[in-house]
Amino acid sequence: MGVQPVRDNPQLPMPIQIFESWMFCKPEAGFTELEKKLKSFSQKSAVLKEVLLEFKENLRFELENDTGDLSLDPDTANPYLVLSEDKRSVRLRSAPQELPANPKRFDYSFCVLAAEGFVAGRHYWEVEVGDGESWVLGAARESVRRKEKIDFAPEEGIWAVGLNWKGKNWDQYQAFTSPETPLSLCERPRKIGVYLDYEGGWVAFYNADNMAPIFTFTAAFTERIFPFFWLFYVGSSLSLCN
Predict the structure, then answer these.
(1) Which residues lie below 8 Å from residue 177, measured CB to CB, with a gap of 6+?
(2) Could you list the residue range(s) of the whole structural domain that residue 180 is in?
(3) Where's the B30.2/SPRY domain (predicted)?
(4) Contacts (Cβ under 8 Å, ≥6 apart) of 162
(5) CA distances to 41, 168, 211 from 235, in Å
(6) Nearest to 63 by CA among 228, 211, 214, 224
(7) Residue 227: cis peptide before it, omega within 30 degrees of 0
(8) Is 11 part of any domain?
(9) Which tens digit of pLDDT belongs to each residue from 188-217?
(10) Is residue 51 part of a domain?
(11) Which residues of the chain are modeled with pLDDT < 70?
(12) Which long-range contacts (C-beta less than 8 Å, at least 24 apart) are formed by 86-92?
């Protein structure tokens, strides 16, 4: 028994009549051409995605990766910060430790620097931020203030990004320009890659899992630059990746 035209099936509900009419209509030439173009675009997008991923991986390996050689400097750590035994992780505690006075120590802000600083070359390191709710990381010049409150800004000698700890939007990532620059990230990064080009005058940040760019500062460096870390919540931590 052949399929009857819609007009010969008045008993069918109207939505079914419309559906049958659509099913047995011959596709228009324009629609078929559009379908071909969409398929071609999808294939090209897949190829482009593979090329982009390969480029990002090559970028990661071409950078001089200093992460394995870095450690945190206990002489700079605020008394509320506890370093791991291998000096590659830092955690914020609820009470200060009894530590000897040191001109290098951050007495007011919950900051710590890496033990290694740079006066030339290109350098790259990665930091595990995990699910941390409030943190700042980046690079700081050697003369950054340590005995009083500091602002995270290039004028203070700090080039950094972080997860916002103030205001109503607790998930706001930002670059600490003057004023701050809100960042719209496609996904929540668990590892941040930091790239310092001393002669080029760059500090660039990436999502280290996929090398998606986050933000880039430009600067003219004139003194030693150190990896920089800050925490806000008790129990929160940051770790240098292996």
Answers:
(1) 153, 154, 217
(2) 69-240
(3) 50-242
(4) 134, 135, 136, 137, 152, 173, 174, 176, 230
(5) 48, 22, 28
(6) 211
(7) no
(8) no
(9) 899 999 999 999 999 999 999 988 999 999
(10) yes
(11) 1-31, 35-68, 165-171
(12) 87/115, 88/239, 88/240, 89/237, 89/238, 89/239, 89/240, 90/229, 90/231, 90/237, 90/238, 90/239, 91/231, 91/235, 91/236, 91/237, 92/231, 92/232, 92/233, 92/234, 92/235, 92/236, 92/237
Query: Do 59 and 118 belong to one domain?
Result: no
CB atoms near residue 241 (< 10 Å): 16
| Shared-domain flag, residues 223 and 201 | yes
CB 113 within 8 A of CB 73: yes
Q: Report d(CA 15, CA 38) in Å as an integer.
A: 29
Instruction: Provide the domain count of the chain.
Output: 2
Contact 138, 159 (CB under 8 A): yes
In a domain, 6, yes or no: no
Instruction: Kindly report, residue by residue over 161-179, the tens digit of the pLDDT.
Output: 999 755 545 568 999 999 9
Considering the domain architecture, whether residues 31 and 148 belong to the same structural domain is answered as: no
* Same domain membership, residue 84 and residue 62: no
- Residue 157 inside a domain? The answer is yes
Indicate the pTM of the whole model.
0.75
Task: Please report how many Cα atoms fall inside a 13 Å half-sphere around the Cα of residue 168, on the Cβ side.
Answer: 0
* Tokens describing residue 158: 């700090």
Which amino acid is it at 149?
K
